[in-house]
Amino acid sequence: MAGNDWINSYLEAILDVGPGLDDAKSSLLLRERGRFSPTRYFVEEVITGFDETDLHRSWVKAQATRSPQERNTRLENMCWRIWNLARQKKQLEGELAQTNAKRHIERERGRREATADMSEDLSEGEKGDAPSDLSTHGDSNRGRLPRINSADAMEAWASQQKGKKLYIVLIRHELNFRLLVFNYYNNACSLHGLIRGESMELGRDSDTGGQVKYVVELARALGSMPGVYRVDLLTRQVSAPDVDWSYGEPTEMLTLTNLEDDEDEMGESSGAYIVRIPFGPKDKYIEKELLWPHIPEFVDGALNHVIQMSKVLGEQVGGGKPVWPVAIHGHYADAGDSAALLSGALNVPMLFTGHSLGRDKLDQLLKQGRLSREEINSTYKIMRRIEAEELALDASEIVITSTRQEIEQQWRLYDGFDPVLERKLRARIRRNVSCYGRFMPRMAVIPPGMEFHHIVPHDGDIEGEAEGNDDHPTSPEPPIWPEIMRFFTNPRKPMILALARADPKKNITTLVKAFGECRPLRELANLTLIMGNRDEIDEMPSTNASVLLSVLKLIDKYDLYGQVAYPKHHKQADVPDIYRLAAKTKGVFINPAFIEPFGLTLIEAAAYGLPMVATKNGGPVDIHRVLDNGLLIDPHDQQSIANALLKLVADKQLWAKCRQNGLKNIHLFSWPEHCKTYLSRIAACKPRHPQWQQTDDGGDTSDLDSPGDSLRDIHDISLNLKFSMDGDKGASGNDSYLDSEGNLGDGNKSKLEHAVMAWSRGVSKESRKSDRGEQSQGSVFPALRRRKHIFVIALDCDDINSLVEAIRKIFASLEKETTQGLIGFILSTSLTITEIESFLASGGFNPSDFDAFICNSGSELYYSAPGAEDGPFVVDFYYHSHIEYRWGGEGLRKTLVRWASSVVDKKTGSEEHIVIPSEQLSTNYCYAFKLQSQKPGLVPPVKELRKALRIQALRCHVVYCQNGSRINVIPVLASRSQALRYLYVRWGVELTNMVVFTGESGDTDYEGLLGGVHKTVVLKGVCSSANSQLHLNRSYPLSDVIATDSPNVSYTAEESSSSDIRDSLQKLGCIKA
């Protein structure tokens, strides 16, 4: 294996021991060797895929041992460790094979069932094209969006965008979260790492790498594009002593380029900004693995920023109407999770870029064999990360990748993306044929952009540069040039340049072997290896040190002194000068990595006029297809590497042609080109944003008795709500109320007008009978708009009596504030509105005790309407249109019914059905199922049902509720926590003024209720038994996503009384003592 020459050395030492090998204690591997080669076995069968750091360290100690007996003993022990590694590897290979086989069977079954549901016969277009003509994500190579290939084309495109004003939001969860906003208002999200516009600390830690630079430059480039009014890059605000003060600044404006011609379009709030949202520990910088419990808090803060900014932009360029983001773009898994929740709360399109994917990382860590799956999840929270990426697939309109390799080898590992099924769905969409509730995100390959305006490729060679005259004196050589050329006997020979860290995956040792064993190549060229920075080899990480030692041994073996340069130090600012030096010598840039996800250095080298030789595995294939400036090689074929390098160095005409092609086509990887393709993709998305009409009062709570409030609220009802006597299934649908444009039909208008007048008369009667406190609640609709604080009761009790008792305690603890009319209550539950009505009656409660009811696990939202002749509840009609994104409807229902019929108890012999569909409990936006038995092992855990539906491209939110006796399947972005965010967006109910009461456990959506900017009171002793079954088979531990030390969460005493509850509220600052 390349880079592991030390293996050969110590195995040769074992073989050289001689008579000791015949001893009874000899290694098993060596006793049975016969014609068997231990070296070959070890390299090819054992070490491949494992991290051999510990073995290398043991070998170094063995080599340093003077005593032959002790040395032999150490080497003997190493052989047994090798044998153990081999056994581990075989076991791991078996487990991976079983996992892959199971995944293949599940995916094939999902495809068959999806195809059977889509009842029409498949056309030729749905069967897929030849592999050479159709990419994995369904794009024909011949039918892609045209690229900009000239400055004139860019100007023509820019002129078409002059009238647009887009707002874009980018999100990145490193130290910062990126939200990109166009007016075009675009938002980008990036949550982890340290993000700022200038002097980025790249490499400071594993969370602050090239992805940070990419997102900042993307925001800056988008902000410079015609038609883009504002871009917000949302990230985390940190004011910690161990980081620079600039990361604590709430807003940072990014310097834009190329705006000279568009200054007349600039406005007061236009441009690109880094917006830092405070969430998590306020004075501490934490790694991305520890951010998961704090993501709801970020979502709430980002939601507040976007709403406020939309209003500001509306005043500036929207004619007084809010300007919503055209897209929210999440970067990395945690930002993808946040972007999904934020886009769902705002009902705007979402984009996602994974950068580095969790499933791929999990496979790589398992292959290394150093950590078990449990240890990997404990260290990296990898299962939570994978679930976030699956949710991003569920919610995204577009997934942006850098290369096809990312789609073909990484995204296809996910349940939510199947390239074969995606092609079939895409074909049906093109033919305008129903997909029966199935959706697949669009995969778009858009390579990262670069800035080339400052790069000026120079012609000439070393001799020409060294000369000069009086008119054009020679400029001083960059300091890095003599640092490199001092290694060479003949520095004028063409330079083969490799720029990569000393990592076995980069395949540097194979490159040195290819160079050393090809005499014609050594005679024609020099080799320069830029392998990072080092002081002492002993201080380097052992894996990097082993690679460097192997390189040094190969240089000695082939006597390459004077032909290979390997400087110890270089600065980031030296890299352009290194490219220039290689180009001056008419050299070649090479990337021989075993696999390269993208290959940004290849683009950088091409910009300086360097032809390339690159691996055929991964992103370089796409780069070569566009630039056509070099040759692709098999990284495992040493001779292929030598032949490609020799061909480019020896053939000057080919070298000149490759150089010219690279310089001619390099603009295709510029930021303007990237942004043009990016904006074109966004323009193809169906626009979505909140649909309701805004009232003039804007939810102002300053005057509770304003005489105009009632009239304005009645106007709201006539536009946005429909009434229901009993809240049954028929009342929850929207098909009979909306026309094709999403507006109310004429017939339904008259019905609503009649209902509004009836409700108005009821309110008037009720007002005359009530005292002033009741008038303030009855005369303004909905009443929660006028509350100072909202208390949300989200207790998932084991039985109705326990819920009744808990609610009475909560009411008693807040009796004083209730009589003043300053607070309101919301009941949040998995029950239907009919069940709630029965529950209220049995418990002695009045519907008017609550301002709103979140029903069916968050898929229905009702308001109380005291005194209305048509019933005590009003359903929020626009909440349905807000959550129906990617709702599978009848196609989903049929799949769920088929799944339910397959879940049987085979042990009894009668094959009794365990899961029963419940028509009575189902609505148009919630399919309910009853569980006849809750025995462990009979009912698949929630993660398995969610996985089965994703494989069939059905996007939904599965909730196991009521202590495992019911399953509610609702729209993918609907939940009880999302309903609270909707109330903020719709009615201006401040999330910071909400208090949520929960038990010690609850339904499988329980985690969403604990995080955020609202306060949470956990009633100990309530819902404590639900934990045993519902949360035992989770994809990730509940502890990974709950912030136990949050200042917003308070725990009551066991079996708490009303006074205990009041004490907890006082600790949170919600009420006064």
Automatic annotation (TrEMBL):
SUPFAM superfamilies xrefs: UDP-Glycosyltransferase/glycogen phosphorylase (SSF53756)
Protein's recorded name: Sucrose-phosphate synthase
GO MF, one example: sucrose-phosphate synthase activity
Gene Ontology BP terms: sucrose biosynthetic process
Glycosyl transferase family domain span: 490-663
Region (Disordered) residue spans: 94-147, 459-480, 689-709
Domain Sucrose phosphatase-like span(s) in chain numbering: 790-1010
UniProt-listed Enzyme Commission number(s): 2.4.1.14
Pfam families reported in the protein's UniProt record: Glycos_transf_1, GT-B_Sucrose_synth, S6PP
Compositional bias per record (Basic and acidic residues), positions renumbered to this chain: 103-115
Family: Belongs to the glycosyltransferase 1 family.
Species of the source: Linum tenue
Annotated keywords: Glycosyltransferase, Transferase
